[in-house]
């Protein structure tokens, strides 16, 4: 896979196909499959694979984003990430699952935000709330030369705030 976002899309696609297949089997062939337990088990398997591969870290409380550590996973906790002082091209991946996150950016800084929410809430700097779906936005005069924030929220909240 090219990056973690592609891997996450692949896993999510496989899970959705599997869930659809389970619903189909239980509806038309009267085969009983515990859908909720299966969803939770796939989520735990995915998180376990991310930990073993060293792609994510847990339980970050407060952190300044300097561009060296680009992947953040907030699981059953909360975090505050300050990216307001980064001016050059850097990428910040933040995944929030059953948690709460807040990312601070400088008002008017060059920034691209790619946000995806599944049964969660992402509040963008323009005040829009995304609860299911995705939104891409660009801030500043030349957003391609600034910070890129890739945010994914599942059953949690993330707020991107200009300070």
Question: How many DSSP E strands?
Answer: 9
* Fraction in beta strands: 35-45%
Residue windows where pLDDT falls under 50 for at least 5 positions: none
Domain module tally: 2
Overall residue-averaged pLDDT value: 77
- From the structure provided, what is the oligomeric state, counting identical versus distinct chains? single chain
The helix count comes to: 2
Order of helices and strands: HHEEEEEEEEE
Structural class: alpha/beta
Report the major sheet: 9 strands, mixed
Q: CA-to-CA gap between the ends?
A: 35 Å
Shape summary: elongated
- Fraction of helical residues: 25-40%
Describe it for me?
This protein is of the alpha/beta class. The chain has two domains: 4-52; 62-162, no CATH class. It has helices spanning 4-28, 35-52, and strands at 62-64, 71-75, 78-82, 90-97, 100-105, 111-123, 129-139, 147-154, 157-162. Strands 1, 2, 3, 4, 5, 6, 7, 8 and 9 form a nine-stranded mixed β-sheet that branches. Helix 1 runs antiparallel to helix 2. The longest helix is centred in the N-terminal third of the chain and has 25 residues, at 4-28. The relative contact order is 0.15. The mean pLDDT is 77.
Brief summary of the model shown:
Strands 1, 2, 3, 4, 5, 6, 7, 8 and 9 form a nine-stranded mixed beta sheet that branches. This protein is elongated.
